[in-house]
Amino acid sequence: MDVSNLFNSNLDQIKISAIRRFDQEVSKIPGMLKLTLGEPDFNTPEHVEAAAVAAVRAHESHYTGMSGLLALREAASQFVAEKYDLQFDPESEILVTVGATEAISASLMSILVAGDKVLTPAPLYPGYEPLIQLAGAEMVEIDTTTNGFVLTPGMLEAALIANPETKAVILNYPSNPTGVTYNREEIKALAEVIQKYPVFVISDEIYSELNYTGEKHVSIAEFAREQTIVLNGLSKSHAMTGYRIGFIFADAVLTSQIIKTHQYFVTAATTVSQFAAIEALTNGKDDAAVMKKEYVVRRDYIISQMTPLGFEIAKPDGAFYIFAKIPADLEQNSFDFLIDFANEKQVAFIPGSAFGKYGEGYIRLSYAASMTVITEAMARLTAYVTEKRGL
């Protein structure tokens, strides 16, 4: 009996991530230098690894509670209080998730029903829309390309008025793919708009510790707490991508509902990883500082090399990405541009089209790679552009 046509029909709208598909495609080319994926090239701090090993040796191999270890939730509560002036009760307002990805999934699946709309600044991380579609809802992109990739209160309010079916607004800052972030005044102004409407804010702050402005990261939960679901985790701040530890911070009324979805998705996050996470958030609360210093050097070097070639770059103040506009005299289809570049020079970036329709004409580089790789990639890009221009 053929059952291949019995899947959830919403899956027909969903494809494997364009980032992953492009990365796999160019990985077939011998000698490839890749500045594609958003994964720190740093190792997990040794003291965090030691905590994981100690947990294994202590036979910490059993389920934790659905919300995660209380000691970890207490550490997370203290961390966001000290870092971002946020107050969340570890008993009832924090959930430990399987990475920020599961935090996104659990949050969206808990609030969305068919016919809902979700507003997002664009270009944006492509991991949101498939989940929105799976729920039968619709994502509405707000074009920020004419404003340095910054969402303004006016843009947000106009979109809310035009889309009365809106259930949630997703903010991701510092942003993947642009690296743009927001200061206190900007976030407060966005919160004032949101508070006028009965909508959720899903604030994906996974890059909060990679903020290069010299100012403290400001969460929108500071201003619109009752409506906000804050997502965070340790993948970027502590180079712990494989540990899969994320967090949801939200008012108890919200977490009491989201935990139902979280429970049936995963039961609980991995126990050994949770013990490592306690170490990361206590003795390693400033571990990101070393990485930040190196990321700034890499960022500035890439900008210094690409700008003379004619690439327009809105200086990223966070995360570890460069989102550059392809010069007008070169191929404007970002996929075609980068496939040709990969074949000619064995260097891979990510096409801007992977980040939605407003990303076309741009390319994204991840500088979560060694300076050696970055230097060589920039030399090859310079040679490629020079050759294309016949210079």
From TrEMBL:
Keyword Transferase attached: yes
Keywords in alphabetical order: Aminotransferase, Pyridoxal phosphate, Transferase
Gene Ontology biological-process annotations: amino acid metabolic process
The keyword Repressor appears for this protein: no
InterPro entries assigned to the protein according to its UniProt record, in alphabetical order: Aminotransferase_I/II_large (IPR004839), AspAT/PAT-like (IPR050596), NHTrfase_class1_PyrdxlP-BS (IPR004838), PyrdxlP-dep_Trfase (IPR015424), PyrdxlP-dep_Trfase_major (IPR015421), PyrdxlP-dep_Trfase_small (IPR015422)
EC number(s) given by UniProt: 2.6.1.-
Domain Aminotransferase class I/classII large: 32-377
Domain of life: Bacteria
Cofactors named for this entry: pyridoxal 5'-phosphate
Coiled-coil ranges from the UniProt annotation: none
GO function terms (MF aspect): pyridoxal phosphate binding; transaminase activity
Pfam entry (one): Aminotran_1_2
Family under the similarity heading: Belongs to the class-I pyridoxal-phosphate-dependent aminotransferase family.
NCBIfam families named among the record's database cross-references: PRK07309.1
Record-given protein name: Aminotransferase
Record organism: Pseudolactococcus raffinolactis
